[in-house]
């Protein structure tokens, strides 16, 4: 069963030059799929189309079989910048998607509060984002994305602004959390290692205009250990992907 | 606690020293006879004038403060609404913004007598002048705040399905509070002066009219006393604004301390 399906999407900003050309991909329930491509290659544009911020010239976006092309409020989104609102506490930031849907503030806080421990944020409910480290802020942003409660989430290079050590710690944490919450996710990255480590499948997005040039299945059981990126299989995947990017 | 006291002293000490020097110079000018007494009253004369007339001054101060607060209230309301309208509709912004800027080049001292002429000797012309003065910094700084909201954040909240009103309420409005308070501090410091100016031009209520009266009587000691009272009221309002800002935007303090 596909949670999300992108069918033959083409998009251009000016009506002449296509940025996306006939892009098709799918996301199964509970799956983590990665879109790998160079920076400025149309990945973020693709996400803006999927999330409904941009209306594609042709093609459709289906969520659980329902056409949601050009509709916002269906799929949650997380960016490289955490975009936590500096004037809301961590719990109120995480509760924002619920509040927007009409949940009462007190109730929304209670619902959100149940997940703080799971996201490694316990004790930080009443803190402001400025009081948190970069890694913590990304966790809070991910919690907010999760609280949106949609059946699919889009993560746009969520860890790329972090330093290497924080990043690998976040990968370990992320694999662990994902194993428990089973959120169907599409993940953008330009980091080959990250793509192999985290995802079930990798789509290569390339060319101008951008289209899906290849699909690689990472056939490794989950949860993966953080040492996976030191194994021979990992290197095989990496060699394969790099050769296909070129 | 001890550290806090220490930092307060460190902050206040230079100002206190400077003030003492000025007052010292003032006392010396009067007592040495360098400036004749009828031109510059000594600090003790001013103090005596204040003590002798304080009930009357307080009554006038009440009027002035009432005008200031009513004017502030409506000035903030109008400035806020104008900013929201300008940020929402480009047409409103393009037509209104230049007019607002031009209106500010007209000296308030020229408007004040006109307002008295049109609106009489009561509180109304004073309130209107305060509104005119307060309106500008509020609307401009609010507009700046509303326009500088991060576009990605707005998009993010849109993907959550937020309506225009919700985006305004949860993102734009709280994001502009810092700008709003910067504008308010400027507004507040001019508001009292504006009310006093309008009172000076006509009527018999308020510190401004009292000021005009004692000037005509050449009671410079009383003039000085009123001037100091007006300054004190302005300072009090500025402090109150700062206090409100800290209460309403507690996160700003944290953000500042990390810079």
Features:
heterodimer; A: 246 residues; alpha/beta; Rossmann fold; 2 domains; 6-stranded mixed sheet; 4-stranded antiparallel sheet; 7 helices; 10 strands; globular; B: 259 residues; mainly alpha; MetI-like fold; 11 helices; 0% strand
Describe the model:
The complex is a heterodimer of chains A (246) and B (259). Chain A contains seven helices and ten strands. Chain A is an alpha/beta fold and 246 residues long. Chain A folds into two domains: 1-75 and 155-246, Rossmann fold; 85-149, no CATH class. The longest helix of chain A is centred in the last third of the chain and has 18 residues, at 164-181. In chain B, α2 (43-88) crosses α5 (124-147), α4 crosses α5 and α8 (177-201) runs antiparallel to α10 (220-248). The longest helix of chain B is centred in the first third of the chain and has 46 residues, at 43-88. Chain B is globular. The two termini of chain B are 24 Å apart. The model of chain B has no long low-confidence stretch (mean pLDDT 88). Chain A binds chain B through residues 48, 51-53, 72-77, 79, 81, 83, 85-88, 96-97, 99-101, 128, 130-131, 148, and chain B through 150, 152-153, 155-162, 166, 170-171, 174-175, 177, 249-251, 254-255, 258.
Shape of chain B: globular
SS content category of chain A: alpha/beta
Portion in beta strands of chain A: 15-25%
Number of domains of chain B: 2
Q: Hey, roughly how much beta strand do the residues of chain B contain?
A: under 5%
Which parts of chain A are unreliable, with pLDDT below 50 for 5 consecutive residues or more?
A: none
* Topology, number of strands of chain A: 10
Q: Most extensive interface: pair and counts?
A: A-B, 26 and 23 residues
Distance between the termini of chain B: 24 Å
| CATH classification class of the largest domain in chain B | Mainly Alpha
For the biggest β-sheet of chain A, the strand order reads 6-7-8-3-9-10
* Oligomer classification: heterodimer
Q: Total number of β-strand segments of chain B?
A: 0
CATH H-level name of the largest domain in chain B... which superfamily?
MetI-like
CATH homology superfamily of the largest domain in chain A: P-loop containing nucleotide triphosphate hydrolases
Tell me the domain tally of chain A.
Answer: 2
- Give the CATH topology of the largest domain in chain B: MetI-like fold
Distance between the termini of chain A: 32 Å
Largest sheet of chain A: 6 strands, mixed
């Amino acid at each position: 069963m596909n949670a999300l399906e992108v069918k033959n999407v083409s998009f251009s900003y000016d009506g002449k030059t296509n940025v996306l050309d006939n892009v098709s991909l799918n996301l199964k329930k509970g799956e983590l799929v990665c879109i790998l491509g160079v920076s400025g290659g149309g990945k973020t544009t693709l996400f803006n189309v999927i999330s409904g911020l941009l209306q594609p010239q042709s093609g459709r976006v289906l969520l659980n079989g329902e056409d949601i092309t050009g509709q916002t409020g269906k799929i949650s989104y997380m960016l490289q910048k955490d975009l936590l609102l500096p004037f809301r506490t961590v719990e109120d930031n995480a509760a924002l998607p619920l509040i927007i849907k009409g949940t009462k503030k007190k109730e929304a806080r209670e619902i959100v509060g149940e997940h703080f421990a799971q996201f490694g944020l316990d004790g930080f409910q009443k803190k402001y984002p400025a009081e948190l480290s970069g890694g913590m802020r990304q966790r809070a942003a991910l919690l907010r994305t999760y609280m949106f409660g949609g059946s699919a989430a889009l993560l746009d290079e969520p860890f790329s602004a972090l330093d290497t050590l924080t990043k690998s710690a976040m990968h370990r944490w992320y694999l662990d959390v994902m194993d428990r919450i089973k959120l169907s996710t599409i993940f953008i990255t330009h980091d080959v290692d990250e793509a192999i480590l985290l995802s079930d499948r990798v789509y290569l997005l390339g060319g101008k205009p951008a289209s899906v040039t290849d699909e690689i299945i990472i056939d490794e059981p989950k949860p993966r250990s953080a040492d996976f990126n030191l194994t021979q299989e990992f290197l095989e995947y990496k060699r394969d992907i790099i050769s296909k990017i070129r | 606690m001890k550290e806090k006291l220490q930092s307060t002293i460190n902050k206040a000490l230079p100002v206190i020293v400077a003030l003492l020097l000025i007052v010292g110079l003032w006392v010396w000018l009067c007592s040495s006879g360098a400036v004749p007494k009828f031109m510059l009253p000594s600090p003790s004369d001013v103090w005596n004038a204040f003590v002798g007339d304080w009930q009357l001054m307080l009554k006038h101060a009440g009027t002035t403060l009432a005008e200031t607060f009513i004017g502030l209230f409506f000035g903030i309301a109008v400035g806020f609404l104008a900013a929201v309208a300008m940020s929402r509709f480009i047409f409103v912004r393009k037509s209104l913004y230049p007019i607002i800027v031009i209106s500010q080049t007209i000296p308030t001292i020229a408007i004040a007598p006109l307002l008295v002429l049109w609106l009489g000797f009561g509180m109304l012309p004073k309130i209107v002048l305060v509104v005119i003065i307060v309106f500008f910094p509020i609307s401009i700084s609010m507009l700046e705040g509303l326009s500088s909201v991060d576009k990605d954040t707005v998009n993010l909240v849109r993907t959550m399905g937020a309506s225009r009103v919700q985006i305004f309420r949860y993102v734009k409005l709280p994001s502009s509070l810092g700008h709003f308070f910067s504008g308010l501090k400027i507004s507040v410091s001019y508001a009292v002066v504006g009310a006093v100016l309008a009172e000076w031009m006509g009527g018999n209520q308020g510190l401004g009219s009292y000021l005009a009266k004692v000037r005509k009587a050449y009671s410079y000691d009383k003039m000085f006393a009123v001037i100091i009272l007006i300054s004190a009221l302005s300072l009090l309002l500025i402090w109150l604004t700062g206090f409100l800002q800290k209460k309403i935007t507690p996160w700003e303090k944290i953000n500042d301390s990390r810079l």
